[in-house]
Design goal:
By secondary structure, the chain is α/β, with parallel strands linked by helices. It has three domains: 3-19 and 32-144 and 220-231 and 241-253 and 354-441, Alkaline Phosphatase, subunit A; 153-217, no CATH class; 457-537, Arylsulfatase, C-terminal domain, CATH 3.30.1120. It has 14 helices and 25 strands. The chain is globular and about 60 Å long. Mean pLDDT is 91; it is low at 1-28, 461-468 and 532-537.
């Protein structure tokens, strides 16, 4: 049996059980949906146990009327494959869309409906703006306003660059990951660089970002998308068409470059900022660098940041201030969208979800980036406001993942149908979170006990069958249960962390608990088809 057949069979086993009836809806009382997706947002959100000084009052307010999933995880902690997975409801390892390929060229995903397509076929008005899919496809939406824009960027008159105030060698990383600072600090101000300053726009459409003073500036891309969403929700409410809507809003921040107004930085004075907890030598019992080169972004960014300042504490606090400022800024944008729902009397008939595509490590294990197998990169905030269903103000500790969003939304909206366009598509991999929304502490959820994440390791490794399109044994897998995190790399090396006593994942105890490692290794194999293919263990 080839891998595609195995994938299809396994997906059917994991399927939510959605029938093959044609997606359609004639019930005008079906709830509206507002899906808000941030980029690179880790647990630095109030109520999620991250940085104690974070300021996210709008997300906190939403959680009071909904449910916080405090053990929610990204299935692939990097932008493109994460979004390609959760917005199609299909694991990356099911489709083989593992890393930076265009999801709509994938043989499985192009024959399966995205979440947006499913709602369109069900009679919803489906509109969006900002960064939803990493690779945008206009046809998935009824209307789409603004494509992803990571600006404002520093500009030296010829190219986008890191801000001139960012010290070397971190500045050398470049205009996206190597730049942070308030918009009031105009790049190259006072230097003779004609045309320098701030720019924004897609990579091939650079345009001036005007900044004269705090009261005279262009809207940032996130502010523009918040304004669009607020106005569009108001228009949809006033249209009174009886047609439910699905609005997707993709905010960039806190993705780099970390550029927002000074007022956000001022809320986190460095001399009052608490240092993220980083244990010296914490990377010594890990195996990331046994698989990846130390020139990979996570280790390199950490080294370059620390080398740019007198000491590690100054370096990490400077970056943390910029990150928290961007989290606070995006929270204000989220609040603007939520307010539009409330101000138009839609709160009792609108599902609102706030989440992120993955997290971000803040220097733990000498790693400053996403795409690690550890808690910082994989854990995400997830808040679901589901009127008449969710137990307001509750917390769910059961590990879940982004793969469960698609089946949850179509369940909550009462939509029946097949997510497959034809026999080349595959069923959904996730499970509806409805039971956990209704009974957060004791809901009888049909999903797995642990959340699965994958860090890309290449297309081939070990014994590879050339008839298969890709090999799961080439990847690096991380499995998070309520009490444990287990990691197995593609060279067979393992890590195990006991979250009951070690929530910061300081001590790899795989040798002390071989029975736990063996059980979780078997679960990884079952969930990823590794039990049917060779793995070096």
């Amino acid at each position: 049996m080839n891998l595609l057949a195995l994938v299809t069979a396994s997906s059917a086993y994991l399927s939510t059980g959605i029938s093959s009836l044609e997606a359609a809806s004639v019930d005008p009382s079906r709830p509206n949906v507002v899906l808000i997706v941030c980029d690179d947002l880790n647990d630095y959100v109030e109520g999620f146990g991250g940085h104690p000084q974070t300021k996210t009052p709008n997300m906190a307010k939403l959680a009071e009327s909904g449910v916080r999933f405090t053990s929610a995880y990204s299935n692939v902690p990097v932008c493109a494959p994460s979004r390609g997975s959760f917005l199609t409801g299909i694991y990356a390892h099911t489709s083989g869309n593992l890393f930076w390929a265009k999801w709509y060229d994938n043989p499985i995903l192009k024959n399966s409906k995205t979440l947006m397509e499913f709602f369109k076929d069900a009679g919803y008005t489906v509109e969006g703006s900002g960064k939803m899919m990493h690779f945008h496809r206009r046809s998935d939406w009824s209307e789409f306003a603004n494509k992803a824009d990571y600006g404002p960027f520093a500009f030296d008159g010829k190219d986008r660059v890191a801000h001139s105030d960012v010290p070397m060698p971190y500045n050398d990383i470049g205009p996206v990951d190597g730049s942070y600072g308030p918009l009031e600090k105009i790049p190259f101000e006072g230097q003779y660089k004609p045309g320098s300053g701030w720019v924004t726009g897609a990579w091939n459409k650079t345009k001036r970002f005007n900044y004269s003073d705090p009261n005279n500036l262009d809207l940032t891309p996130d502010e523009k998308n918040a304004k669009w969403a607020s106005e569009r929700i108001t228009e949809l409410a006033q249209a009174d068409s009886g047609q439910p809507f699905f609005v997707g809003v993709g905010f960039i921040r806190p993705h780099t470059p970390l550029h927002v107004q000074q007022r956000y930085f001022d809320r986190f004075p460095i001399d009052e900022l608490i240092m993220p907890i980083i244990k010296p030598g914490d990377a010594e019992d890990t195996h990331y660098l046994d698989v990846f080169k130390d020139t990979m972004k996570g280790p390199k960014y950490f080294r370059d940041l620390v080398a740019s300042y007198p000491d590690m504490e100054t370096a990490i606090l400077t970056f943390t201030q910029a990150y928290l400022a961007c989290v606070n800024a995006v929270d204000e944008c989220i609040g603007q969208v939520i307010d539009a729902v409330e101000d138009n009397g839609l709160s009792e008939n609108t599902i609102i979800i706030v989440t992120s595509d993955h997290g971000w490590d803040m220097g733990q294990k000498d790693f400053l980036f996403k795409h690690s197998p550890w808690e910082g990169s994989t854990r995400i905030p997830l808040i679901i406001h589901a009127p008449r269903v969710a137990k307001a103000g509750a917390e769910v500790k059961q590990p879940v993942s982004l793969i469960d969003l698609y089946p949850t939304l179509i369940d909550l909206c009462g939509i029946k149908g097949d997510n497959r366009k034809n026999e080349k598509g595959v069923p959904l991999d996730g499970f509806s979170l409805r039971p956990l929304l209704v009974e957060p502490e004791a809901g009888q959820w049909d999903g797995p006990d642990a959340a699965l994440s994958m860090v890309y390791g290449g297309q081939k490794a070990g014994n590879f069958n050339p008839e298969e399109r890709w090999n799961p044994a080439a990847q690096n897998w991380s499995l998070r249960s309520a009490d444990w995190r287990y990691i197995i790399y593609n060279n067979g090396m393992e890590e195990l962390y006991n979250h009951q006593i070690d929530p910061l994942e300081w001590d790899n105890v795989v040798k002390q608990h071989p029975e736990v490692a063996a059980k979780m290794r078997d679960e990884v194999k079952r969930m990823t088809y590794l039990d049917r293919l060779a793995i070096r263990k």
